[in-house]
Amino acid sequence: MDLILHPTTDSGISGPYADRYGAAMPVIALLELRLKPESLPGAHQLLREILADTRAFAGCEGVEVLVDNADPAHIVVHEIWASAEADAAYRAWRAGDGASNLGSILTGAPVLTVLTAYTDA
Length: 121
Description:
Elements: H1 18-21, E1 27-34, H2 40-56, E2 60-67, E3 74-81, H3 84-95, E4 111-116
Antiparallel strand pairs: 1-3, 1-4, 2-3
């Protein structure tokens, strides 16, 4: 097996994002949701409306909604943010002026996991 090395920028960041992002590393946020079964008929429309604002937020590079094949009430929202700062600004906005009624269709609190690509693997 060949080892593929990725370039390093002047910022010292190495890996597949070095050329594209320079000093700012993108982060991936996974938001795990458990929907109330009775909310399923309208849940997708509500998510579409809420995520339109997410996609329009500064620093958002993409959002996907993943639905569990075995359990349609289990959803994972996969977000890509330009930087940890962009993600933090979005979370602060959602906790304040940008609050939504997402909680009304959930069985419990969503689980947020924020990840950064490990580029040295």
